[in-house]
Design goal:
Distance between the termini: 32 Å
Largest sheet: 22 strands, antiparallel, barrel
Number of helices: 7
Strand content: over 45%
Shape: globular
Number of strands: 30
Helix content: under 10%
Length: 641
Amino acid sequence: MFKKLTFSISLAAISSMTLQAQDQALQTDSLLSRLDESKGSGKLLNEVIIQENRIQLPFAQQNRNIRIIDQAMSQIMPVRSVNELLSYVAGIDVRQRGPKGVQTDVSLDGGTFDQTLLLLNGVKISDPQTGHNMMNIPVPLDAIERIEILRGSAARIYGVNALTGAINIITKTPEKTGVSAQTYAGSSFKKDDSTGDTYASFGVQATGAFVKANQNHVLSLSHDAGNGYRYNTAYRNQKAFYQGSFSTKNHSEFGVSGGFIRNNFGANAFYAAPGDKESEETVETALAAISYKTRINDFWTLKPRVSFRHNQDDYLYIKQMPDKFHNKHKSQTLNAELNNTLETGIGTFGLGLEARKEDLKSTNLGERERTNLGVFSEYKFDKVEKLLVNVGAYTNYNSDYGWEVFPGMDAGYDIYPNWKVFMNVGSGQRLPTYTDLYYKGPTNIGNDQLKPETSKYGEGGLKYNNRFLFVNASYFYRRIDNFIDWVRSDLSQPWQPQNFQQINTQGYTFSADYRPFGTAQNARNFNLTAGLAYTYLDPKFRKTEEQTQKISRYALESLRNQLTATLNLEFYRHFNVTLAARHCERINYKAYTLVDSRLEFKAKYYSINADATNLMDITYVEAGAVPMPGRWYNLGLRFTM
């Protein structure tokens, strides 16, 4: 089906549209559109309310290292998936095994992919089977309003598994009825030697919004497919997501959401190279959540929520021989929460309860279940001018590992208008996944004696925030005890996880973003948006003499130096040019630099964009033994009504 790639757009038809007649309307609509679309995200970033589950603060008041990717930024970047978008955030290590969100591991500041907690609108969507399924998110990129990245151990805020931080994906809440659709096609113009087909991909997304006085609804659908970029890397990915909100006369709000994704892909060298050349995997994920928010009285806000996640992972080690090492895993997670915010004369209190039940049925891992109960307690003190302090603790009971308490605190002081010094300390825990504990395979063997990982984290730094410039410079130190790494004695042995004694990591982070979205500068004929971020990590490993002789699978794969830079120029409200560069240097791998670009033409109701990724055609690896695609071109068309 991909023997010949054809994608034609009549430029004559486009140019025949009367741009002069549209221009005056577009000057107003461009500004209004950006203000509407970026409400709470790109409009005034320092006023964005970070969506924690109890005590919520604007971005400018936060005393932690938080990055925001808003919708206005995501629309100008040369990306087609959430995974690709996250790769432009310094401090996030995105280890892709294929393009367009096929399979991706995500970690923060040198941690492993199981140590980062992923949330959707505050709901945990991590997988107890394995962190490899964490990014199987049933939300098209076009339905996402912003992404909040919280760096540092965060059990006080989010509970277990936020060992190195958390990524919270916030979906759109529409303000007006409308529809949008986009399509793209792309190719490397290289051929598959075995078939003679040209490697190519295509995708389509559609989103509809319906808004009335007391309710709003969003439905998003997407389909992405391609025949890969090397042998056995073809993929098909379908997503559907719905979100609805209903308001009552007493200003209470009822919310419901649900999504489904089916992700099928060739998994050549994904997990067990070189023996898995003929591997294939299909991952299906369904999510559902029901929430309610009501104000009991002038000082008490109550927010109960129930969520459910179902995941099915079907892995064929050799797709031509389905009976050989064919693994089927079905996991189900039921989560119930009761969050409270109490505003008093001495400060704001946050209290929360959560109960989580995790079940697994697997041909390889067996039938497993465990229960997690948690209590959140937080306090915000802001009664001293220029000083803000948040303190709290998360108390956790797990049916396999018993009781633990994880305290945390952050503080910030405004030393000058727009300038803040801040510090935070925190702790966290990561439970072993069922794959860590019980996996049985030719190249990977689990260890049911594993203990949970725990962390202690401290950070201090300086922030500057105004209407369109955001700067953060900080230093952090993190200690992880009982670190879990997959190791082996020599290349002939299978990988098996073990608890290492300790990993101590210190890091330096810097980020600066200039984003004039929502300011008067949008009325100009020329606008500039720019970002620069750098992260340096220095991990130190404390091991026994026996452990020193082991070959590490994950501990030595983290980034040491990471630099990202983005530049967007907008001309006369019709033309956008974006350049984005990433420089990465891993502890045990060569340094490499990737450069991507996007050209875009915008009219009132449509836009045309052309992307070129990996412009210099660099050969590199992000995860395991999987070489990433070389230079790739995409042409896209978008309509908005």
